[in-house]
Amino acid sequence: MVGTIRINYDASFKCASFGLNARHELGQVIAAVTNFSREATSPLLVECLCFRWTLCLANGLGFRHILMENDYLMLHTIKLGRQS
User: CA torsion sign, 61 to 63 to 57 to 16?
Assistant: First the structure.
């Protein structure tokens, strides 16, 4: 979709850090940012903090049409409401 920003984000529980890269529809990087958290007490929590941070950063950068990607299956399951 024209005007959509693709954001790939990931977190690491080992060092409680996370980051993202954002690309526009032609694939050019328009943002690459890292951060860390002292609140991360579990892998799921650090992934959730990363997800929230990514949304806040995207909003702050003025991105209105975004496609978010990550590789943490548990977070996708929870987002889809399939957590038992």
Answer: negative
pLDDT digits (tens, 9 = 90+) for 1-29: 568 999 999 988 888 899 999 999 899 99
Burial 54-77 (b: 16+ CB within 10 A, else e): beebbeeeebeeeebebebeebee
How much is the pTM?
A: 0.77
The CATH code that applies to domain 5-79 is 3.10.20.370
Q: How far is Cα 66 from Cα 43, in angstroms, rounded to an integer? A: 24
